[in-house]
Amino acid sequence: MIGRWRVCSRAVAPCCSSWALYGDGGVMVPARGCQSASVPIVRQGTKPDSSLGIRSFNEIPGLWKNSVANLYRFWKHDGFRNVHRIMLNNFKNFGPIYREKIGFYESVNIIKPEDAAILFQAEGHYPKRLLIEAWTAYRDYRNHKYGVLLKDGEDWKSTRLVLNKQVIAPQVQENFVPLLDEVGQDFMARIQGKIEKSGNNKWTVDLSNELFKYALESVSSVLYGERLGLLHDHIEPEAQHFIDCISLMFKSTSPMLYIPPWLLRRLGARVWKDHVKAWDGIFNQADRCIQNMFRRLKQESGGEGRYPGVLAILMLQGTLSIADIKASVTELMAGGVDTTSITLLWTLYELARQPELQEELRAEIAAARAASQGDVMEVLKMVPLVKAALKETLRLHPIAVNLQRYITEDVVIQNYHIPSGTLVQLGLYAMGRDPQVFQRPEQYTPSRWLQKNTRYFRSLGFGFGPRQCLGRRIAETEMQLFLIHMLEKFRIENQGQMDTRSTFELIILPEKPIVLTIRPL
Ligand code: HEM
């Protein structure tokens, strides 16, 4: 105890709150004990003690005193689409911690890995992100249940624990691999077909819509154990509509982070109407897939040993209610499209700029193929550079601009007292580009992740702890298989494009189309 404050140097390793660890920083199932480490955390107390030199919450630099003026300034600088660049600037201006209030959105923002460690240590047993009111408002409006993404407290935890076992536990990967590998191979056959059709031995294209289809086909095959057929030339209009709705859902969310959805709804604002239209499309398509699945389950007596998909397993298991399963499966489907496809697009963009890196990756993949004698699971264990490339993409082009938690205890970060209940955000985009955290951050260098001691609270693209990305296992497997197949068959070239800027539409995506040329090896 120091004064009224207790300083605790408990573990800030990637494991806390009595959950056991799965993979890279993943904390998934209840377990005993916690690892040890050394970051001091103020655990209790109501007021900062100036005799310790700890500065008060109100001394944190930033723009938080006039939230309406801040909203106006933010809107004038096209902030809705520039959140990531504004954060980067704020860290340059205010230093490694700043406080902000824009409209009704109030936060403390941090950038250092060691501060991220303190943040996640203080996330409590039921980690909570910023509630995206637009998403809950839609569900309340249409009377839909909340799924794992939006649930809270014990309700979230019990659902998440059931889902973890089917979606993210290491042992489920072998169920997914044959399905995802098949989708990967079909995608490559599709590219080959396009190249042949072009008549000049190459295909020059903005791949984004193709990648959306690849991602939806992949996630659906895992969720429903069945192919949607999106990699054919003619796809069902509902499937394309679903893809368009996901983009619209993300795009229409970002203004509603700062302006309450109930107000926009009352004003009959376009953004609210678009948002409803988008979620309606998402829920309708997910419902169609779920209904098909029900029908199939009733008709089929036995699955001849074939993996039936996450949805069927959850239904047969009967631990969650049908309404809960539907809500979470819809969210998994919605979360599984733009995230992986945009990450793959950025990866191809970076690889197109570095032909020699493509060769290095090809050599690694060829060696893994030769050593694994046709076993895809084995190949996946032998491609560290492929995995590092995806990490590097998420460093420079993270899907989420920040990671957020409402802290459940008082902490001291950068010598400022932050009271329990505050929304603290780790600037993921800004951290990835901070030269004090990553040497030569502007360079795409996957091998940096192969060096020892580079990972301490730095590789956080999928979040951290028990509330990290639930779809991580699917996403990683899907993206690794994609790169393996792609690099085995094709060379990726760019069109001499200058740097492509990114824009914020709740997730970070390229501002303009990325046009690539794909040639057979
Ligand atoms: C490159 C791909 C992806 C990235 C970078 C990504 C990133 C993230 C991040 C940063 C979070 C918040 C984690 C936190 O707060 O600690 C998250 C949550 C989530 N993601 Fe992903 N994601 C990806 C793919 C997917 C896929 C493929 C799915 C579905 C199959 C998915 C489903 C979810 C769900 C359901 C949550 C909420 C989990 C919860 O609240 O318990 N994500 N994701």
Automatic annotation (TrEMBL):
<keyword id="KW-0809">Transit peptide</keyword>
<keyword id="KW-0755">Steroidogenesis</keyword>
<dbReference type="GO" id="GO:0008386">
    <property type="term" value="F:cholesterol monooxygenase (side-chain-cleaving) activity"/>
</dbReference>
<feature type="binding site" description="axial binding residue">
    <location>
        <position position="469"/>
    </location>
    <ligand>
        <name>heme</name>
    </ligand>
</feature>
<dbReference type="InterPro" id="IPR036396">
    <property type="entry name" value="Cyt_P450_sf"/>
</dbReference>
<keyword id="KW-0479">Metal-binding</keyword>
<protein>
    <recommendedName>
        <fullName>Cholesterol side-chain cleavage enzyme, mitochondrial</fullName>
        <ecNumber>1.14.15.6</ecNumber>
    </recommendedName>
</protein>
<keyword id="KW-1207">Sterol metabolism</keyword>
<keyword id="KW-0443">Lipid metabolism</keyword>
<keyword id="KW-0349">Heme</keyword>
<dbReference type="GO" id="GO:0005506">
    <property type="term" value="F:iron ion binding"/>
</dbReference>
<dbReference type="InterPro" id="IPR001128">
    <property type="entry name" value="Cyt_P450"/>
</dbReference>
<comment type="pathway">
    <text>Lipid metabolism; C21-steroid hormone metabolism.</text>
</comment>
<dbReference type="GO" id="GO:0034650">
    <property type="term" value="P:cortisol metabolic process"/>
</dbReference>
<keyword id="KW-0999">Mitochondrion inner membrane</keyword>
<keyword id="KW-0472">Membrane</keyword>
<keyword id="KW-0153">Cholesterol metabolism</keyword>
<dbReference type="GO" id="GO:0006700">
    <property type="term" value="P:C21-steroid hormone biosynthetic process"/>
</dbReference>
<keyword id="KW-0496">Mitochondrion</keyword>
<dbReference type="GO" id="GO:0071375">
    <property type="term" value="P:cellular response to peptide hormone stimulus"/>
</dbReference>
<dbReference type="InterPro" id="IPR017972">
    <property type="entry name" value="Cyt_P450_CS"/>
</dbReference>
<keyword id="KW-0408">Iron</keyword>
<keyword id="KW-0503">Monooxygenase</keyword>
<dbReference type="GO" id="GO:0020037">
    <property type="term" value="F:heme binding"/>
</dbReference>
<dbReference type="GO" id="GO:0006704">
    <property type="term" value="P:glucocorticoid biosynthetic process"/>
</dbReference>
<dbReference type="Pfam" id="PF00067">
    <property type="entry name" value="p450"/>
</dbReference>
<comment type="function">
    <text>A cytochrome P450 monooxygenase that catalyzes the side-chain hydroxylation and cleavage of cholesterol to pregnenolone, the precursor of most steroid hormones. Catalyzes three sequential oxidation reactions of cholesterol, namely the hydroxylation at C22 followed with the hydroxylation at C20 to yield 20R,22R-hydroxycholesterol that is further cleaved between C20 and C22 to yield the C21-steroid pregnenolone and 4-methylpentanal. Mechanistically, uses molecular oxygen inserting one oxygen atom into a substrate and reducing the second into a water molecule.</text>
</comment>
<comment type="similarity">
    <text>Belongs to the cytochrome P450 family.</text>
</comment>
<keyword id="KW-0560">Oxidoreductase</keyword>
<dbReference type="InterPro" id="IPR002401">
    <property type="entry name" value="Cyt_P450_E_grp-I"/>
</dbReference>
<dbReference type="GO" id="GO:0008203">
    <property type="term" value="P:cholesterol metabolic process"/>
</dbReference>
<dbReference type="GO" id="GO:0005743">
    <property type="term" value="C:mitochondrial inner membrane"/>
</dbReference>
<dbReference type="InterPro" id="IPR050479">
    <property type="entry name" value="CYP11_CYP27_families"/>
</dbReference>
<keyword id="KW-0753">Steroid metabolism</keyword>
